[in-house]
Amino acid sequence: MKLGELRENYTQKGLRKNEADSNPLQQFEKWMIEAQEAGIIEPNAMTLATSGSDGEVSSRTVLLKGLHEETFQFFTNYHSKKARNLSENPNASLTFLWKELERQVNIRGTVEKTSREISEEYFHSRPYGSQIGAWVSEWQSGEVVNREQLVEREEDFRRKYPETSEVPLPGFWGGYQLKPTCIEFWQGRPSRLHDRICFELNDNQWQISRLSP
C-alpha cells in the first residue's frame, strides 16, 4: 500500500476574495445548497472536534441540523464524551468536507446548549425509531455487555412508549449551538495553490482575508 502516491489534481471552481459573500453564514448556505444539488450524500455531515480540561482532543462525525440566529446546531446525548468535553471547555471546531466539489469549510467558535424548546421541536421531528433509540442509549459511550442488551432495552422502551403515543424528550438529550468566531472556506486549485478565504469576527464585524495555501 503506497499511500504517498495517492493524489488528485483539483481542477474545479475557484474562490476569489471579492466573489465571497460579505457574510460568511450566507456564503456557507450557498455552498451547502450547491453540495445538496451535487447529490452529495449527507452534505450536512461534519467533524466535531472537542477537548476537555485535560487538553486531550477527540473528534467524531455528527450532523448539522440547523442554522439558527447565526449559530450551527447539532443534537446529541448530554452524557456523551463530547458533552463532557463541552462542559469543561466550550471551544470547538466543525469541519465540512465536500470532496466531490473539492471544498472544505472549517468553523471555530464556542458552544452552548440550545433552549429546551428547540430540543423538543427537533426531537419530535425525528422518526419514532430514532426517538426510542435516544432512550435506549442513555449512557452513550459507556460499555455494554453485548448487542442483545441494547435490543432488550429497545423492546422495553417500545412497550413503554408505543408508536401511537408521544415519546417524551429525555432529560439527558438535546441540542447544542456553536457560535462561530472564525470561518474558513477552502477550495482546491491546481498545483496545490488552493484558495483559502477566512472570516474572523472582530468587534461583532466579520473581517475577510485570503490565507496562503
Features:
alpha+beta; 213 residues; Pnp Oxidase, Chain A; 25% helix
Short structural description:
The chain has helices spanning 24-37, 81-88, 116-123, 128-136, 147-160, and strands at residues 45-51, 57-63, 66-68, 71-77, 91-98, 103-113, 173-187, 195-202, 205-210.
- Alpha-carbon distance between the termini? 28 Å
**CATH fold name of the largest domain, please?**
Pnp Oxidase, Chain A
CATH class of the largest domain: Mainly Beta
**Helical segment count:** 5
Q: In CATH terms, what is the architecture of the largest domain?
A: Roll
Mean pLDDT: 96
Q: How many whole angstroms does the radius of gyration measure?
A: 20 Å
- Tally of extended strands? 9
The SSE order reads HEEEEHEEHHHEEE
Structural class category: alpha+beta
Q: Which residues sit in consecutive blocks of at least 5 with pLDDT less than 50? A: none
Gross morphology is globular
Main beta sheet = 9 strands, antiparallel
**Helix residue percentage:** 10-25%
Number of domains: 2
Strand content: 25-35%
The CATH homologous superfamily of the largest domain is called Electron Transport, Fmn-binding Protein, Chain A
